[in-house]
Design goal:
590 residues; alpha/beta; Immunoglobulin-like; 8-stranded parallel barrel; 5-stranded antiparallel sheet; 16 helices; 22% strand
Amino acid sequence: MNPNTLFTSNRKFGPLITETGVTFRLWAPAAQRVHLILDRAIAMTRENGGWYVLQVPEAAAGTHYKFRIDNEADVPDPASAFQPADVFGPSEVIDHGAYRWRAADWRGRPWHEAVILEAHVGAFTREGSFRAAIDKLDHLVETGITAIELMPLADFAGRRNWGYDGVLWYAPDSAYGRPEDLKALVDAAHQRGLMMFLDVVYNHFGPEGNCLGRYAPNFFTGMQTPWGSAIDFRLPEVRAFVVESAIAWLRDYRFDGLRLDAIHAIAEPAQLMMLHDLSTAVGDLSDATGRHIHLVLENDANAAGLLDPDEAAPRGKYRAQWNDDYHHAWHVLLTGETQGYYQDHEQSPIDDIARALGSGFVYQGASSKYRGGRPRGEPSGTLSPLAFINFVQNHDQIGNRPLGDRLTDIAEPKALEAALAVTLLAPNVPMLFMGEEWGSRRPFPFFCDFGGGLADAVRAGRRREFAETYALHGNDVPDPVDGATLRKAVLDWEACAIAAGKQRRELVRDLLAVRRREIVPRLAGAKFGTAQATAGLVTAHWRLGDGTTLKLTANLSGRDVPSIDRAGTLIWGHDLTENLPPWTVSWRIE
């Protein structure tokens, strides 16, 4: 079956190109009448269930259009494939079948081979475009990266945004290029053996440019998430909207997987219905195309029951979850900071690192101080280690700091190198944030492009949240709405060539070479073993798929500690002697 046409004929949302023109569709149950706006207004036919439909023989790829609601408001298609003039402009009909893929035989890579680099397209290169990112792919391959995860691309209001304020979930934002430019990036990555993942936001719409409430108010529940109105996924039309969005990114752009942002913010009881429907539909796509497709969650609830990295294709569950517990414990150990969610790890971050290495989540039903003593999480030790994506930096934990400063600026270099040595060789899926491979010092503060009262509200909210930092640093705190804030976040690629950058990148490259040679071939079927922390010494072991045992001994303190259990063949790090020096790591296979 042709993957360019798979699942297109029976989809509900968005324009459908046929041999006789284009069929336009809009679900607008609250509208009394809808007109399609081309070079003229054409009345659409209302059908059952609040759908408006119109076949236009003269329309084709490249046609620009809008919908007029009750002769009052002109709105874009919520399933627009492209917005050449931003979210308030006309939508453009895109023929996804017109792109000729060069990596036509690409079927992806198995999950256990994943080494992820998270990137923001607008800050990844000076040009901030899909096409410019292609020039950096060889660098990633040479470093040992096997997958890129792009921060959200769904069209947002303005010229710059992290992406979590998207309002048109099918359209890549025009700030980065056209749809064919995004396809060229994905295609070029596949030609180099790189998987491409996309971060998607299905728990809320951004605060500017979402028109659904005008003509389909039952899209929303009336409840609020931390970022906006909760979406009512109990309705089959709403579930179809999000599922078709996910399929569109995977089918039309050939992404190898999706990371679903903050699913704990999806209103119950609709959460499990939507997650199951989406995973099942993606599994059908995987079966029909023979592709490896991977689905990942961010979920503060630590719901281990949603995860299964061993399924051949998604069948209602998800490959893995970002392991924030692992990150938070490391952050406390490396910086001593215990504010906010870090307070849950202030008692013994080394013990928490060991727990995460030994069984996945740190919080597996224990009460959370940060969450007012409420229990959090489910037991996770029976899952594969591959169900957990581990990292010591990501966009959230850098960018949600008022200055956007990285660990490179606030942690000791030797301690940070030890954190990388543990993270990149543990049998979980490791992730780096762009530039981390050379120890970039370029900040990544929050930025957006809102205007008027919304811009004022964003500024005021940041000042309230980070009052202490504003009191200390004043105008040195980046203005999130100022275009200079994004410009300051653009990666310092030149730093990769200086001595410190070369040294850090060489460390990362060596670690990933060992991972590729010694660990990845044994990862399928890996299981958790045991892990413990004693006086700064962390020891852990895992049973690998070929029956061998992977062993870690790490001194995560600033003093010498006695080493124990010296059996096995050294594959990386310090050769074990009676005492292990500060911040040294040893990996062995027995």
